Amino acid sequence: MQDLIKIIDFVKEIDQLKAVLRKTRPLGMQRYENSAEHSWQVTLAALMLKDYAAQPVDIDRVLRMLLIHDLCEIDTGDVIVYDAIGSEHEAAEAAATQRILGLLPNDIGAEYIALWHEFEAATSADARFAKALDRALPLLHNLNDQGHSWQNHGITVEQVKTVNGGRINKGCPQLWQLLEPMVDEAKAKGWLT
Collapsing DSSP states into helix, strand and coil, what is residue 11? Predict the structure, then answer.
């Protein structure tokens, strides 16, 4: 019974992800999406795009990575990817992941903590594909919202291509081939500097 109580406590804890606002808006909406919505959408996108992965992937592992990848934001909040590079932020996310997934009983938490680290390091085809989609979704939001988040944060086309292009191309090259000309078009429209 104690293990069940720990799992229920974890489920209650992750409900807080619904309150973490991101920097992009859902398509056609004026409000900002929350991290739980992002996790749901990117997971479903992975399921639909699995055949486009750069290498064969274990979709079950990919889905599990994407469902947990942003749980750390319960403690750290969402940081725009262009500002999220650095050991201090990475250490805070790792500590938050340890705390939240550490609520789980037995070895469940350890299994998911290892999966989170694999995602972060992009050390497998599964992780590279998951990271590609994690980068593609905010990019799609910006492309369909006249670069709203990009403009609000002064993001350049070089930043978008460097941060997103590399990650998307490594995990899902055909998706980057589709998106890169759209990024160039966004620059031509003045949505990026």
Answer: helix
Q: What angle do the packed helices 35-49 and 125-143 form, to 10 degrees?
A: 120
Query: In total, how many domains does the chain have?
Result: 1
| Domain assignment present for 193 | no
143-171 burial: b if 16+ Cβ within 10 Å, else e: bebebbbbeeeebebebbbebbbebbbbb
Range of the domain at 117: 2-188
Instruction: Tell me if 139 is assigned to some domain.
Output: yes
Residues 50 and 168 sit within 8 Å (Cβ to Cβ)? no
DSSP bridge pairs for 21:
34
Band (pLDDT 50/70/90 cuts) for residue 84 is low
CATH number of residue 116's parent domain: 1.10.3210.10
Q: What angle do CA 56, 62, 65 make, to 5 degrees?
A: 150
pTM of the model: 0.94
